[in-house]
């Protein structure tokens, strides 16, 4: 297993997500699993922000497309799920850059991948000075809005 430096992990993750951080420590935190460092919460706080930003963008896109409330809710129930976010994260290879809890033995569970994708969205939101259009571009770049 190849050991990457923090700078290499940051650079690779930025290339995948199509966003370059001003404060790369936000990305480091987004890629940190709970228990990976003494700050046991890992990326969970960023994931809460990312989840809210993702849901806002999904509703906004539905509104712009003049979707019904049912269709907008359905998009939330399919696109913002842990299963969908984990699938996207694994397909992009983000699992190679997550700083894991040592007890994980190198295995990235699906729930952690979903949390990491949400945390990355949250980190970009904060790093971009809370720019919703930047988040929108990120979500479109990650293909979260597309059906499986």
Structure write-up:
The structure is a single chain. It contains seven helices and no strands. With 148 residues, it is mostly helical. It has one domain (6-141): Orthogonal Bundle (Ribonuclease iii, N-terminal Endonuclease Domain, Chain A), CATH 1.10.1520. The protein is globular and about 45 Å long. 31% of the residues are buried. The mean pLDDT is 91.
Structural class comes to mainly alpha
As residue ranges, the low-confidence spans are: none
Shape summary: globular
Biggest β-sheet: count, sense, barrel? none
Oligomer: single chain
Q: Give me the strand/helix succession.
A: HHHHHHH
CATH domain fold name: Ribonuclease iii, N-terminal Endonuclease Domain, Chain A
Protein traits:
single chain, 148 residues, mainly alpha, Ribonuclease iii, N-terminal Endonuclease Domain, Chain A, 7 helices, globular
Topology:
Layout: H1 6-17, H2 24-30, H3 44-64, H4 69-79, H5 82-92, H6 110-127, H7 132-141
GO biological process, one term: RNA processing
Pfam families: Ribonucleas_3_3
Organism: Penicillium angulare
